[in-house]
Amino acid sequence: MADLNRSDNGRIVSIAQGDEYLDYSQLNQLEQSFRDWTENSKRKDVRLSRLSVLLIFLLIRYTGAKLNDVLSINIHTDLDWSRCLVIFRSDGNDATKLREVHISQSLADEIRDKIDTLKSRKNSDRPLDLDPGFVRRKFYERALECGFPKQLCGPEAIRKARGVELMQSNIPLPAVQMMLGHATPNLTSAYVTFSKDELQALTRRFLEKESGRKTSARNSFFGKVTRIVKGSIEAQIAMQTLEGDYILSVITNDSLKRLGLNPGSFITAEVKAPSVILHQGESDPKCSTENRFRGVVTRKTLGKIHTEYIVKISETTEVCAVISSTGNPSFQLKVNDHAWVLFSSSSVVLHVD
């Protein structure tokens, strides 16, 4: 792990100077690469192998576990779906040395579905028990696909990045240490006021909030500010989403000051459904709209006045658009059609998380 020096009541933890790690947007770009790689396989046997690797990545990404601990998971005894727990047994079956790590409800549901797929095709209690060298190679391949240095994308580096991510989210140090399985011999009195149950409850709340940021069907995007261009009256804000996409917003300078935005600030961008424009087809539309995303129509609800479309633009994000049902008769988008989601920078409302 990075240097765990405590400051300011233990809620902000410094990282060793020069220490490198993937930030949250890069972690999610890497996650998307694993998901695309898994889905793009045409052979069932290859897809199952890739599904196992994806699950290993997700478990390391969100539990901060060691590779060997993940590879040793018994799907019948080590996954508690009712409590959204992953149980790691680094020291065998000694109940006093088990480590329980919470995951979000949505992640637990996803992992359970994927485990069920593997169970139906693999007669094993440990479908994740792959060769460690093979797993590392697949992690490095995805790193190259994303343009990241491979040393930042190995299982140990992902574990480290998860720890940094938790600490930068102001999770108390003992909660991070407990989640990652670190010893905590030097806790100060400020830390001791947190009981184990309180730390677990805090971690659960954070994980559910974190998960909610990734599963939005209300045209809400979570990300961080990457650039601010200030004019005489307005400012253009560029933010990077969890999936690595960019969204532009234009707000007044008064709003910029009131929100206290700076590069690196975490924000949520929201767009109302009637402000979303859909463009039919796969070709990039020739228009001046700043924000544009390619996707696939997953749902269409026809009404007398308006029609609601849901367009999936990534593995974890859907956008809702509401357009007139009596508009252009040549506009005939159907479910599974490719479409472009477009909205202007002036339609984006920013909220400080």
Describe this structure in words.
- The chain has 2 domains: 5-212, Orthogonal Bundle (hpI Integrase, Chain A), CATH 1.10.443.10; 220-352, Beta Barrel (OB fold (Dihydrolipoamide Acetyltransferase, E2P)), CATH 2.40.50.
- Helix content is 34%, strand content 25%.
- The protein has helices at 24-39, 44-63, 67-71, 105-119, 132-146, 155-168, 173-180, 189-192, 196-212, 253-259, and strands at 5-7, 12-14, 79-80, 85-88, 99-102, 220-230, 234-241, 246-252, 266-270, 277-280, 291-302, 306-312, 318-324, 338-343, 349-352.
- The strands form 4 sheets. Strands 8-7-6-9-15 form a 5-stranded antiparallel β-sheet.
- Helix 2 (44-63) packs antiparallel against helix 4 (105-119) and helix 7 (173-180) packs across helix 9 (196-212).
- The chain is globular, with a radius of gyration of 22 Å.
- The model is unreliable at 1-18 and 185-192 (pLDDT under 50).
